[in-house]
Write a structure and sequence with these properties.
Layout (H helix, E strand, L loop, with lengths): L2 E5 L2 E3 L5 E8 L7 E7 L6 E6 L6 E3 L7 E6 L4 E6 L8 E8 L3 E3 L3 E5 L2
Parallel strand pairs: 2-11
Antiparallel strand pairs: 1-3, 3-8, 4-5, 4-9, 5-6, 7-8, 9-10, 9-11
Length: about 120
């Protein structure tokens, strides 16, 4: 049974930083492309960042380039999202996603950026 468990969300002030983690189990983690998505109230879920399985190359949404960094530790079956210079518009539920032949989702973690 595949499980993706996010952690690290919370409340942070504008300009602050927050780190998210997603621990995976039940799959061959190193073979999966891992992504972070987010969904704000009343909006569609959108891709935030992606890290590929073989090359380790990364993609980012334009709105987070230069502020967010995705990384992975295949030995720990964990993907990370470091978020710096946070803005109120980054407020959303953040979801971890694993994709190869199948797609799996975590339960999400709330990130709120507010003063």
């Amino acid at each position: 049974q595949v499980q993706l468990v996010e952690s690290g969300g919370g409340l942070v002030q504008p300009g602050g930083s927050l780190g998210l983690s997603c621990a995976a189990s039940g799959l061959t983690f190193s073979s999966y492309t891992m992504s972070w998505y987010r969904q704000a109230p009343g909006k569609e879920r959108e891709l935030v960042a992606r890290i590929f399985s073989v090359t380790g190359s990364t993609n980012y949404a334009d709105s987070v380039k230069g502020r967010f960094t995705i990384s992975r530790d295949n030995a720990k079956n964990t993907v990370y999202l470091q978020m710096n210079s946070l803005k109120p518009e980054d407020t959303a539920v953040y979801y971890c996603n694993a994709a190869r032949f199948s797609v799996y989702w975590g339960q999400g973690t709330q990130v709120t950026v507010s003063s």
